[in-house]
Design brief:
histidinol-phosphate transaminase activity, binds pyridoxal-5'-phosphate, 12 helices, pyridoxal phosphate binding, globular, about 40% helix, pyridoxal phosphate, Aspartate Aminotransferase, domain 1, PyrdxlP-dep_Trfase, 3-stranded antiparallel β-sheet, Aspartate Aminotransferase, domain 2, aminotransferase, 7-stranded mixed β-sheet, single chain
Length: about 350
């Protein structure tokens, strides 16, 4: 068997997260709020009338129309995938691959690196700079170092997560702008958490034909289980994504659900406000605890650094039934990432952390 394996994939670990039953899920940045029953019913009503035996719309026309209204962008510039993860996959399949490089500021969303490696590309990781005392933002792009990796004569791909997962906040806008402006390749700006902070590079699309914006329905839209993401870019980029995408990549249920949710933006807005309010409350509670640093966030999660070993905190939380994330990378070595849950879940998290820290901080 060994001789059949791709040598360039030996170091990849299969993504098989442990399933923890009955846990409070604060590890995947999902929304703690499921769709209201009447909204679900409107989705079921429409799905019930569809023929399951036929392939559904391969181009997601109705959803792209609805997104066009939401974004104020022509539908031709919108491309829908089975989750933002598939969009990332398509971007590297279309524009990276063997002999090409993908620049990734780290730590960031792990799929950029994984999918780049699978595409056969070489990954260039550039660590973020951490300025704990900085008044504006603490995690910064190392612009000179990133630019030193730019190649004028060979097309590259670069990912910028804005705001960044797992660090939680936006990078300085002029830094991102400078990188996009000087880059010879495709820049993917991942705005998975756009709705929580409102900053976007979408308005720069007309200026930069090499820019692609990534968005998802998995976070504020509460549809993680249905897998819908999308890209917004110049038609020339969209055309290349259509070349590499699997033919019927988004199933009929998911397309219909996304269209119906977009008709209920008042509900989405309400969810957003609840989560932001809960995030601020959780942040203030955690900041009061001993031996913990809480980083600024424009998302639905908080990154925290601990004075006690993070594995201990992780394990003790798990024993209390709370599942959280240990972000990867030496830059975030003793840190944990907590998704913002319901006020009750957050209260339980804060209380549990207080107990753990008081017991183990000497
Ligand atoms: C959650 C997340 C995604 C993945 O979204 P899916 O649509 O569920 O695949 C993409 N990028 C970032 C930064 C994320 O945090």
């Amino acid at each position: 068997m060994t001789k059949y394996k791709r040598e360039d994939l030996v170091n990849l670990l299969p993504y098989k997260p442990a399933k923890v039953k009955e846990a409070i899920r604060l590890h995947a940045n999902e929304s703690p709020y499921d769709l209201p029953e009447d909204l679900k019913e409107s989705i079921f009503d429409r799905v019930r009338k569809e023929s399951f035996n036929y392939y559904y719309d391969p181009n997601c026309d109705e959803l792209r129309e609805a997104l066009s209204g939401y974004l104020g962008i022509q539908p031709e510039k919108i491309f829908v995938g089975s989750g933002a993860d598939e969009i990332i996959y398509d971007i590297v399949l279309a524009f990276a691959g063997p002999g090409r490089e993908v620049i990734i500021p780290v730590p960031s969303f792990p799929s950029y690196e994984t999918f780049s490696v699978i595409s056969g590309a070489k990954v260039v990781r550039v660590p973020l700079l951490l300025e704990e005392d900085s008044a504006d933002c603490c995690w910064k792009l190392d612009v000179p170092k990133i630019k030193s990796q730019f190649k004028k004569d060979a097309p590259q791909v670069m990912f910028i997560c804005y705001p960044n997962n797992p660090t939680g906040d936006y990078f300085r806008e002029p830094d991102v702008f400078e990188l996009i402006k000087d880059f010879n390749g495709i820049v993917a700006v991942d705005e998975a958490y756009f709705e929580f902070g409102g900053k976007t590079f979408i308005k720069r699309l007309s200026q930069f034909p090499n820019l692609v914006i990534i968005r998802t329905f998995s976070k504020v839209f509460s549809l993680a289980g249905l897998r819908i993401g999308y890209a917004v870019a110049d038609e020339n980029i969209i055309e290349e994504l259509y070349k590499v995408k699997p033919p019927y990549n988004v199933n009929l249920f998911s397309q219909i659900a996304a269209v119906e949710v977009l008709k209920h933006m008042d509900w989405v807005e309400e969810v957003k406000k609840k989560i932001i309010k809960a995030r601020e409350e959780l942040k203030n509670k955690l900041k009061e605890l001993p031996g913990i640093t809480v980083y600024p966030s424009s998302t639905n999660f908080l990154l925290c650094k601990f004075k006690v070993p993070r594995d201990l905190v992780y394990q003790k939380l798990l024993e209390k039934g709370i599942l959280v994330r240990k972000p990867e990378g030496k830059e975030v070595e003793n840190m944990l990432r907590f998704s913002v849950g319901t006020p009750e879940q957050n209260e339980f998290l804060a209380q549990s952390l207080e107990d753990i820290l008081k017991e183990h901080l000497q």
